[in-house]
Protein backbone atom coordinates (compact mmCIF):
# COMPACT_ATOMS: atom_id res chain seq x y z
CA UNK A 1 0.00 0.00 0.00
CA UNK A 2 2.85 2.37 0.79
CA UNK A 3 4.39 1.83 -2.64
CA UNK A 4 1.07 2.58 -4.30
CA UNK A 5 0.69 5.72 -2.20
CA UNK A 6 4.18 6.83 -3.16
CA UNK A 7 3.36 6.23 -6.81
CA UNK A 8 0.27 8.40 -6.54
CA UNK A 9 2.21 11.15 -4.80
CA UNK A 10 5.01 10.99 -7.38
CA UNK A 11 2.57 11.09 -10.30
CA UNK A 12 0.72 14.02 -8.79
CA UNK A 13 3.97 15.86 -8.27
CA UNK A 14 5.03 15.33 -11.87
CA UNK A 15 1.68 16.58 -13.18
CA UNK A 16 1.81 19.57 -10.85
CA UNK A 17 5.28 20.49 -12.07
CA UNK A 18 4.14 20.09 -15.69
CA UNK A 19 1.09 22.35 -15.42
CA UNK A 20 3.02 25.65 -15.48
CA UNK A 21 4.35 24.78 -18.95
CA UNK A 22 0.78 24.69 -20.24
CA UNK A 23 -0.63 27.69 -18.38
CA UNK A 24 -2.39 30.32 -20.45
CA UNK A 25 -1.18 33.89 -20.76
CA UNK A 26 -3.47 36.85 -21.35
CA UNK A 27 -5.58 36.06 -24.42
CA UNK A 28 -5.97 38.39 -27.40
CA UNK A 29 -9.01 38.81 -29.60
CA UNK A 30 -8.68 40.41 -33.05
CA UNK A 31 -11.51 41.35 -35.37
CA UNK A 32 -10.79 42.06 -39.03
CA UNK A 33 -12.40 42.25 -42.42
CA UNK A 34 -12.43 43.77 -45.87
CA UNK A 35 -14.75 45.33 -48.44
CA UNK A 36 -13.90 44.77 -52.09
CA UNK A 37 -16.24 46.10 -54.79
CA UNK A 38 -15.65 46.92 -58.44
CA UNK A 39 -17.32 48.29 -61.54
CA UNK A 40 -17.29 45.46 -64.09
CA UNK A 41 -17.84 45.70 -67.83
CA UNK A 42 -18.15 42.45 -69.81
CA UNK A 43 -18.50 41.98 -73.58
CA UNK A 44 -19.11 38.42 -74.85
CA UNK A 45 -18.99 39.32 -78.55
CA UNK A 46 -22.75 39.70 -78.86
CA UNK A 47 -23.90 41.49 -75.72
CA UNK A 48 -22.25 43.74 -73.18
CA UNK A 49 -23.15 44.55 -69.60
CA UNK A 50 -21.81 46.92 -66.91
CA UNK A 51 -22.53 46.38 -63.23
CA UNK A 52 -21.17 46.84 -59.69
CA UNK A 53 -20.48 43.76 -57.58
CA UNK A 54 -18.19 42.07 -55.07
CA UNK A 55 -14.78 41.12 -56.49
CA UNK A 56 -14.47 37.34 -56.05
CA UNK A 57 -10.69 37.44 -56.52
CA UNK A 58 -10.75 38.41 -52.84
CA UNK A 59 -14.34 38.73 -51.71
CA UNK A 60 -15.81 40.87 -48.95
CA UNK A 61 -15.46 39.12 -45.58
CA UNK A 62 -15.15 39.45 -41.81
CA UNK A 63 -13.28 37.35 -39.28
CA UNK A 64 -12.12 37.01 -35.70
CA UNK A 65 -9.10 35.34 -34.10
CA UNK A 66 -8.80 34.32 -30.46
CA UNK A 67 -5.17 33.68 -29.53
CA UNK A 68 -3.42 32.61 -26.36
CA UNK A 69 0.24 31.95 -25.64
CA UNK A 70 1.03 28.80 -23.66
CA UNK A 71 3.72 28.48 -21.04
CA UNK A 72 5.58 25.94 -23.19
CA UNK A 73 6.02 28.49 -25.98
CA UNK A 74 3.14 27.19 -28.06
CA UNK A 75 0.08 29.11 -29.23
CA UNK A 76 -3.59 28.13 -29.30
CA UNK A 77 -5.91 29.94 -31.70
CA UNK A 78 -9.58 29.86 -32.54
CA UNK A 79 -10.27 31.28 -36.00
CA UNK A 80 -13.62 32.28 -37.53
CA UNK A 81 -14.03 33.84 -40.97
CA UNK A 82 -17.00 34.21 -43.28
CA UNK A 83 -17.99 35.94 -46.48
CA UNK A 84 -21.16 38.02 -46.35
CA UNK A 85 -23.24 36.14 -48.91
CA UNK A 86 -22.99 38.76 -51.65
CA UNK A 87 -23.53 37.39 -55.17
CA UNK A 88 -20.14 38.39 -56.51
CA UNK A 89 -18.32 38.58 -59.81
CA UNK A 90 -17.87 34.80 -60.18
CA UNK A 91 -21.67 34.34 -60.13
CA UNK A 92 -22.61 37.25 -62.40
CA UNK A 93 -24.09 36.61 -65.87
CA UNK A 94 -25.55 38.78 -68.61
CA UNK A 95 -29.04 38.15 -67.23
CA UNK A 96 -28.28 38.24 -63.51
CA UNK A 97 -25.57 40.51 -62.14
CA UNK A 98 -27.28 42.11 -59.16
CA UNK A 99 -25.40 42.06 -55.86
CA UNK A 100 -28.06 40.17 -53.93
CA UNK A 101 -27.26 38.90 -50.44
CA UNK A 102 -27.89 35.24 -49.70
CA UNK A 103 -25.99 34.26 -46.56
CA UNK A 104 -25.77 30.47 -46.29
CA UNK A 105 -23.37 27.91 -44.88
CA UNK A 106 -21.18 27.84 -48.01
CA UNK A 107 -20.05 31.38 -47.11
CA UNK A 108 -18.21 30.01 -44.06
CA UNK A 109 -14.50 30.21 -44.79
CA UNK A 110 -12.89 29.24 -41.48
CA UNK A 111 -14.07 27.75 -38.20
CA UNK A 112 -11.00 26.06 -36.81
CA UNK A 113 -8.84 25.35 -33.81
CA UNK A 114 -5.09 25.78 -34.33
CA UNK A 115 -2.20 24.69 -32.13
CA UNK A 116 1.28 25.95 -33.08
CA UNK A 117 4.15 24.19 -31.32
CA UNK A 118 7.56 25.88 -31.13
CA UNK A 119 9.28 22.60 -32.03
CA UNK A 120 6.84 20.29 -33.78
CA UNK A 121 4.91 22.44 -36.24
CA UNK A 122 1.26 23.44 -36.45
CA UNK A 123 -1.92 21.36 -36.10
CA UNK A 124 -5.32 22.39 -37.51
CA UNK A 125 -8.81 20.98 -36.98
CA UNK A 126 -12.07 22.25 -38.46
CA UNK A 127 -13.16 24.21 -41.52
CA UNK A 128 -10.20 25.91 -43.18
CA UNK A 129 -7.48 25.66 -45.80
CA UNK A 130 -6.35 22.27 -47.00
CA UNK A 131 -2.59 21.85 -47.50
CA UNK A 132 -2.89 22.74 -51.19
CA UNK A 133 -4.94 25.90 -50.71
CA UNK A 134 -2.79 28.64 -52.28
CA UNK A 135 -0.36 26.15 -53.79
CA UNK A 136 -0.73 27.73 -57.27
CA UNK A 137 -0.66 31.30 -55.99
CA UNK A 138 2.98 32.22 -55.25
CA UNK A 139 3.05 35.85 -56.39
CA UNK A 140 4.96 39.02 -55.38
CA UNK A 141 3.35 41.30 -57.98
CA UNK A 142 1.08 43.26 -55.64
CA UNK A 143 -1.79 42.90 -58.14
CA UNK A 144 -3.39 39.64 -56.94
CA UNK A 145 -6.47 41.55 -55.78
CA UNK A 146 -7.41 41.74 -59.47
CA UNK A 147 -5.08 39.32 -61.32
CA UNK A 148 -3.67 35.97 -60.26
CA UNK A 149 -3.49 32.35 -61.44
CA UNK A 150 -7.19 31.63 -60.85
CA UNK A 151 -8.19 33.80 -63.81
CA UNK A 152 -11.83 32.66 -63.79
CA UNK A 153 -12.73 34.26 -60.43
CA UNK A 154 -13.54 37.64 -61.94
CA UNK A 155 -16.28 36.42 -64.30
CA UNK A 156 -16.56 32.64 -64.04
CA UNK A 157 -20.26 32.23 -64.85
CA UNK A 158 -20.26 34.02 -68.20
CA UNK A 159 -20.75 31.56 -71.07
CA UNK A 160 -18.91 31.63 -74.36
CA UNK A 161 -20.94 32.21 -77.50
CA UNK A 162 -20.50 30.52 -80.85
CA UNK A 163 -19.75 32.68 -83.86
CA UNK A 164 -23.47 32.71 -84.58
CA UNK A 165 -24.20 34.31 -81.23
CA UNK A 166 -25.78 31.31 -79.49
CA UNK A 167 -24.75 30.65 -75.91
CA UNK A 168 -22.69 27.49 -75.44
CA UNK A 169 -22.65 25.21 -72.42
CA UNK A 170 -19.08 26.24 -71.59
CA UNK A 171 -18.50 29.00 -69.05
CA UNK A 172 -15.27 30.76 -68.17
CA UNK A 173 -14.96 28.66 -64.99
CA UNK A 174 -15.32 25.49 -67.09
CA UNK A 175 -12.55 26.54 -69.47
CA UNK A 176 -10.07 28.04 -66.98
CA UNK A 177 -8.97 26.15 -63.86
CA UNK A 178 -5.89 26.64 -61.68
CA UNK A 179 -6.09 23.31 -59.79
CA UNK A 180 -5.38 25.17 -56.58
CA UNK A 181 -6.51 23.69 -53.29
CA UNK A 182 -9.60 24.65 -51.30
CA UNK A 183 -11.07 25.12 -47.82
CA UNK A 184 -12.82 22.11 -46.30
CA UNK A 185 -13.56 20.43 -42.97
CA UNK A 186 -10.19 18.83 -42.38
CA UNK A 187 -7.35 17.72 -40.18
CA UNK A 188 -4.02 19.26 -41.17
CA UNK A 189 -0.43 19.20 -40.00
CA UNK A 190 2.37 21.57 -41.09
CA UNK A 191 5.95 20.83 -40.12
CA UNK A 192 8.15 23.43 -38.52
CA UNK A 193 10.22 25.42 -41.04
CA UNK A 194 13.64 23.96 -41.82
CA UNK A 195 15.97 26.14 -43.90
CA UNK A 196 12.93 27.71 -45.53
CA UNK A 197 11.15 24.40 -46.27
CA UNK A 198 7.76 23.50 -44.79
CA UNK A 199 5.86 20.28 -45.39
CA UNK A 200 2.10 19.84 -45.01
CA UNK A 201 -0.44 17.03 -45.13
CA UNK A 202 -4.22 17.14 -44.71
CA UNK A 203 -7.32 15.01 -45.03
CA UNK A 204 -10.79 16.48 -45.38
CA UNK A 205 -14.36 16.36 -46.67
CA UNK A 206 -16.68 18.95 -48.17
CA UNK A 207 -19.37 19.29 -45.49
CA UNK A 208 -20.80 22.65 -46.57
CA UNK A 209 -21.98 21.38 -49.97
CA UNK A 210 -24.52 18.55 -49.81
CA UNK A 211 -24.41 15.94 -51.18
CA UNK A 212 -20.65 15.57 -51.58
CA UNK A 213 -19.27 12.27 -50.30
CA UNK A 214 -15.77 12.66 -51.72
CA UNK A 215 -12.68 12.53 -49.53
CA UNK A 216 -9.65 14.72 -50.19
CA UNK A 217 -6.03 14.10 -49.25
CA UNK A 218 -3.40 16.79 -49.84
CA UNK A 219 0.38 16.72 -49.56
CA UNK A 220 2.37 19.91 -50.09
CA UNK A 221 5.91 21.25 -49.88
CA UNK A 222 6.66 24.96 -49.66
CA UNK A 223 9.87 26.96 -49.72
CA UNK A 224 10.28 30.63 -48.80
CA UNK A 225 13.56 32.47 -48.38
CA UNK A 226 15.54 35.61 -49.18
CA UNK A 227 18.90 35.81 -50.87
CA UNK A 228 20.55 39.23 -50.71
CA UNK A 229 18.45 41.24 -53.19
CA UNK A 230 16.04 38.43 -54.05
CA UNK A 231 12.92 37.03 -52.42
CA UNK A 232 11.78 33.53 -53.43
CA UNK A 233 8.53 31.61 -52.86
CA UNK A 234 8.05 28.09 -54.26
CA UNK A 235 5.16 25.67 -53.73
CA UNK A 236 4.19 22.24 -55.04
CA UNK A 237 1.31 19.99 -54.07
CA UNK A 238 -0.42 16.70 -54.81
CA UNK A 239 -4.12 16.02 -54.24
CA UNK A 240 -5.92 12.69 -54.21
CA UNK A 241 -9.71 12.84 -54.62
CA UNK A 242 -11.48 9.67 -53.51
CA UNK A 243 -14.96 9.44 -55.01
CA UNK A 244 -16.03 6.84 -52.35
CA UNK A 245 -19.30 5.96 -54.15
CA UNK A 246 -18.15 4.22 -57.31
CA UNK A 247 -16.95 7.24 -59.28
CA UNK A 248 -13.51 7.62 -60.77
CA UNK A 249 -10.83 8.81 -58.38
CA UNK A 250 -8.74 11.77 -59.50
CA UNK A 251 -5.18 12.91 -58.96
CA UNK A 252 -4.14 16.55 -59.29
CA UNK A 253 -0.64 18.04 -59.25
CA UNK A 254 -0.07 21.79 -59.15
CA UNK A 255 2.54 24.28 -58.06
CA UNK A 256 3.94 27.77 -58.43
CA UNK A 257 7.08 29.82 -57.98
CA UNK A 258 7.65 33.57 -57.61
CA UNK A 259 10.78 35.71 -57.49
CA UNK A 260 11.11 39.38 -56.52
CA UNK A 261 14.17 41.54 -57.18
CA UNK A 262 13.82 43.92 -54.24
CA UNK A 263 15.97 46.84 -55.47
CA UNK A 264 14.09 47.23 -58.77
CA UNK A 265 10.64 45.88 -57.88
CA UNK A 266 10.72 43.56 -60.90
CA UNK A 267 8.99 40.24 -60.15
CA UNK A 268 8.10 37.04 -61.95
CA UNK A 269 5.55 34.33 -61.19
CA UNK A 270 4.82 30.98 -62.78
CA UNK A 271 2.13 28.39 -62.00
CA UNK A 272 1.11 25.11 -63.56
CA UNK A 273 -1.16 22.17 -62.87
CA UNK A 274 -2.63 18.99 -64.35
CA UNK A 275 -5.43 16.53 -63.57
CA UNK A 276 -5.17 12.91 -64.67
CA UNK A 277 -8.88 12.11 -65.04
CA UNK A 278 -9.67 14.99 -67.40
CA UNK A 279 -6.16 14.89 -68.86
CA UNK A 280 -6.22 18.69 -68.71
CA UNK A 281 -3.36 21.05 -67.88
CA UNK A 282 -2.31 24.68 -67.93
CA UNK A 283 0.47 27.12 -67.30
CA UNK A 284 0.28 30.69 -66.02
CA UNK A 285 3.07 33.27 -66.28
CA UNK A 286 3.23 36.80 -64.93
CA UNK A 287 5.69 39.69 -64.92
CA UNK A 288 5.26 42.57 -62.49
CA UNK A 289 6.82 45.86 -61.50
CA UNK A 290 6.45 47.67 -58.14
CA UNK A 291 7.61 51.23 -57.46
CA UNK A 292 7.02 53.93 -54.84
CA UNK A 293 6.27 56.80 -57.20
CA UNK A 294 3.95 58.55 -54.73
CA UNK A 295 4.13 59.01 -50.98
CA UNK A 296 0.62 57.55 -50.59
CA UNK A 297 1.88 54.03 -51.27
CA UNK A 298 3.38 51.67 -53.79
CA UNK A 299 2.19 51.27 -57.38
CA UNK A 300 2.10 47.75 -58.83
CA UNK A 301 1.81 46.87 -62.51
CA UNK A 302 1.54 43.41 -64.08
CA UNK A 303 1.04 41.52 -67.31
CA UNK A 304 0.01 37.85 -67.31
CA UNK A 305 -0.93 35.00 -69.62
CA UNK A 306 -2.83 31.75 -69.08
CA UNK A 307 -2.67 28.83 -71.52
CA UNK A 308 -4.67 25.65 -70.93
CA UNK A 309 -5.67 22.53 -72.83
CA UNK A 310 -8.49 19.97 -72.68
CA UNK A 311 -10.69 21.88 -70.27
CA UNK A 312 -14.39 20.98 -70.57
CA UNK A 313 -13.97 19.63 -74.14
CA UNK A 314 -11.27 17.22 -75.30
CA UNK A 315 -8.80 18.97 -77.58
CA UNK A 316 -9.86 22.47 -76.52
CA UNK A 317 -7.53 25.41 -75.95
CA UNK A 318 -8.04 28.11 -73.32
CA UNK A 319 -6.07 31.35 -73.35
CA UNK A 320 -6.27 34.54 -71.34
CA UNK A 321 -4.16 37.67 -71.01
CA UNK A 322 -4.48 40.65 -68.70
CA UNK A 323 -2.84 43.95 -67.84
CA UNK A 324 -3.41 45.30 -64.33
CA UNK A 325 -2.52 48.19 -62.04
CA UNK A 326 -2.93 48.55 -58.26
CA UNK A 327 -2.28 51.73 -56.27
CA UNK A 328 -1.93 51.37 -52.51
CA UNK A 329 -3.08 54.11 -50.14
CA UNK A 330 -1.31 53.03 -46.96
CA UNK A 331 -2.89 55.59 -44.62
CA UNK A 332 -6.31 54.02 -45.20
CA UNK A 333 -5.38 50.36 -45.82
CA UNK A 334 -6.82 50.86 -49.29
CA UNK A 335 -5.96 49.43 -52.71
CA UNK A 336 -7.40 51.02 -55.85
CA UNK A 337 -7.15 48.83 -58.96
CA UNK A 338 -7.92 48.53 -62.65
CA UNK A 339 -7.54 45.57 -65.00
CA UNK A 340 -8.38 44.43 -68.50
CA UNK A 341 -8.64 40.69 -69.18
CA UNK A 342 -9.47 38.79 -72.38
CA UNK A 343 -10.68 35.17 -72.47
CA UNK A 344 -10.37 33.00 -75.58
CA UNK A 345 -11.69 29.45 -75.94
CA UNK A 346 -11.35 27.19 -78.99
CA UNK A 347 -12.59 23.66 -79.58
CA UNK A 348 -12.45 21.39 -82.62
CA UNK A 349 -15.32 22.09 -85.01
CA UNK A 350 -16.63 25.16 -83.16
CA UNK A 351 -15.51 28.78 -83.14
CA UNK A 352 -16.29 30.83 -80.05
CA UNK A 353 -16.38 34.58 -79.50
CA UNK A 354 -13.83 36.04 -77.09
CA UNK A 355 -15.00 37.51 -73.80
CA UNK A 356 -13.50 40.85 -72.76
CA UNK A 357 -13.58 42.12 -69.18
CA UNK A 358 -12.65 45.50 -67.74
CA UNK A 359 -12.84 46.26 -64.02
CA UNK A 360 -12.01 49.18 -61.74
CA UNK A 361 -12.49 48.95 -57.99
CA UNK A 362 -11.09 49.20 -54.50
CA UNK A 363 -10.37 46.93 -51.55
CA UNK A 364 -10.42 48.36 -48.03
CA UNK A 365 -9.07 46.27 -45.16
CA UNK A 366 -9.92 46.93 -41.52
Detailed description of the structure:
By secondary structure, this protein is mainly beta. Helix content is 6%, strand content 55%. It is built from 2 helices and 20 strands. It has helices at residues 2-18, 172-175; strands at residues 28-43, 48-54, 61-69, 75-83, 108-117, 121-129, 159-161, 167-171, 183-190, 197-205, 215-227, 230-242, 250-261, 266-275, 280-294, 297-309, 317-329, 334-347, 350-351, 355-365. The strands form 2 sheets. The chain has a 16-stranded antiparallel β-barrel. Strands 7-8 form a two-stranded antiparallel ribbon.
Kindly list the characteristics that best describe this protein.
single chain, 366 residues, mainly beta, 16-stranded antiparallel β-barrel, two-stranded antiparallel sheet, 2 helices, 6% helix, globular, disordered N terminus
Helix and strand topology:
Layout: H1 2-18, E1 28-43, E2 48-54, E3 61-69, E4 75-83, E5 108-117, E6 121-129, E7 159-161, E8 167-171, H2 172-175, E9 183-190, E10 197-205, E11 215-227, E12 230-242, E13 250-261, E14 266-275, E15 280-294, E16 297-309, E17 317-329, E18 334-347, E19 350-351, E20 355-365
Antiparallel strand pairs: 1-2, 1-3, 1-20, 3-4, 4-5, 5-6, 6-9, 7-8, 9-10, 10-11, 11-12, 12-13, 13-14, 14-15, 15-16, 16-17, 17-18, 18-19, 18-20
Short description:
With 366 residues, the protein is mostly beta strands. The protein contains 2 helices and 20 strands. Strand 14 and strand 15 form a beta hairpin.
| Number of β-strand runs | 20
Q: Unreliable stretches, pLDDT < 50, 5 or more residues? A: 1-21
Helix- and strand-based class? mainly beta
Strand order of the largest sheet: 1-3-4-5-6-9-10-11-12-13-14-15-16-17-18-20
Amino acid sequence: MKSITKLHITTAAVLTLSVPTLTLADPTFDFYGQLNFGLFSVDDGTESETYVTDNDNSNTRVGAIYSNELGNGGTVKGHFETALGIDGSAAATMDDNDSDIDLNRTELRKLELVYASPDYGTFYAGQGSMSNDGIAEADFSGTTVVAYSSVSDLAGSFAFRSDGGALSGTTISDAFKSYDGARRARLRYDTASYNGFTGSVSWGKELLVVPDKREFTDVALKYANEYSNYKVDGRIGYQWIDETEGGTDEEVVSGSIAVLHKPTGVNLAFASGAADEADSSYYYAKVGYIQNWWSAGSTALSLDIFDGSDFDIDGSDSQSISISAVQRVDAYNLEVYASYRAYEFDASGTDYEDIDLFVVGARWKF
